Amino acid sequence: MGKYIGKRLLWMIFIVVGTAFVIFTILYFTPGDPAVVIAGGNAKAEDVENLRRMMGLDQSYFVQLKEFLYHTFFKFDLGTSWVYGKPVLDELLIRLPRTLIIGLTAMALNLTIGLLMGIFAATHEGKWSDSLTMGIAMIFISCPDFWVALMMILLFSSKLGWLPSYGIGGPQYYIMPILCSALGGIAVNARQTRASILGVFREDYITTARAKGQKERRVVFGHMLPNALMPIITSIGNGFARVVAGSAVIESVFSIPGVGLYLLTAINSRDYPVVRACVLFFAIFTAVAMLIVDLVYAFVDPRIRAQYSHARKGTKHEK
């Protein structure tokens, strides 16, 4: 098991370092000069050149890449924002809790409601309740996040006046952003859960469990769901990463100063240290989510544990 975890950790490090290299390279070769954008259209050529020198843009690609990787992975320094003049890491730590509140709460809703909807639809296969549940899921998955957010603002803020339309404050400020982030994930989890449950619905061990007189709830949650978990876990892991990485749209619509809005603002103003740091954060978050999924795989599926146990025993036997 330790070998399995170590292998996944190595892949995680490779992914994060690779992402850092790719995002730096893309930004370096992006057309346009960030110094000109930040200095303004009326700035003198001499001022722009001085700004480029202060930002380190006058150095070669390999020199800048080496400095970026060294400061990021050895000094844990994400640099200073070119626009605001503040350390990027400090700003991320301030904004991160808001993004995580939305992402983690939305994921909890995805998991709970999506699983229940999928199980309900699968156990009522072919009935009107199954069609209604999957129809609702189809609507959820078809509506873009930004459109749902705007419709919620028009209904719950402008018309009814129940909820604030933007900004941060008390818990009521997070209700609409969380719901917008959760709807698509609920639909995906519901459809995946239904398909997975139906895949084991008529297996022999399910028929045997029913023949023994076990209650339907015991059959579903004790026999069906554990054997249908593998595809569901994959869907949940992907959704977990997608909810947080897709926070830019939600935070932009609701004007929530989180990591996503920080990234969008930095892209528009060519604030490359902020863009690199935010992309790197999302890469780390996604890699951690996938690592957790892999560990859950090993916990749920005994075949994975057995594979590495046999490999370890085989190595000892050879010695």
From TrEMBL:
InterPro entries attached to this UniProt entry: BPD_transp_1_N, MetI-like, MetI-like_sf
Source organism, top-level taxon: Bacteria
A family per Pfam: BPD_transp_1
UniProt keyword Nucleotide-binding, yes or no: no
Protein keywords: Cell membrane, Membrane, Transmembrane, Transmembrane helix, Transport
Subcellular location, principal: membrane
Gene3D superfamilies from the UniProt entry: MetI-like
PROSITE patterns: ABC_TM1 (PS50928)
Protein's recorded name: ABC transmembrane type-1 domain-containing protein
